[in-house]
Amino acid sequence: MDDRQFHNENDNREVTLTIHVNVPDYTPDWLIVRHRITQTTFTAAVKKADFARLEADQMVDSFSINEELDS
Predict the structure, then answer these.
(1) pLDDT of residue 6
(2) What angle do CA 42, 46, 41 make, to 5 degrees?
(3) What pLDDT was estimated at residue 68?
(4) Which CATH number fits the domain that encloses residue 29?
(5) Over the stretch 13-69, which tens digit does the pLDDT of each residue have?
(6) Which of 9, 21, 41, 65 is 20–30 Å from 35 (CA)?
(7) Domain presence at residue 70
(8) Cα dihedral value 45, 49, 51, 54, nearest 10
(9) Quick check: is 35 in a domain?
């Protein structure tokens, strides 16, 4: 398997994130909430390739990965 193919497959793998937003009950329209913890914190499955979308969203304060990533 060539390195590009490995990264493409790895980028498409979903990981569970805990996401904290700065607007109560806000969820990016492209995400599906798995569990709402508080009005500003929830979990969702997100492809690694979409992390940049979360980082660019002004209403997302932070997100953390809930599992170990492959190197």
Answers:
(1) 43
(2) 10
(3) 65
(4) 3.30.70
(5) 889 999 999 999 999 999 999 999 999 999 999 999 999 999 999 999 999 998 765
(6) 9
(7) no
(8) -90
(9) yes
Which amino acid makes up residue 29?
Answer: D
Q: Are strands 41-47 and 14-21 parallel, antiparallel or unpaired?
A: antiparallel
For tokens 């940049």, what's the residue? 52
Provide the domain limits for residue 43.
Answer: 3-65
Structurally, how many domains does the chain consist of?
Answer: 1
Concatenate the DSSP letters of all residues of 16-30 into one string.
EEEEEESSTT---TT
Specify the residue for token string 């709402």.
36
> In Å, what is the CA distance from 19 to each residue of 24, 52, 58, 62, 70?
12, 13, 13, 6, 20
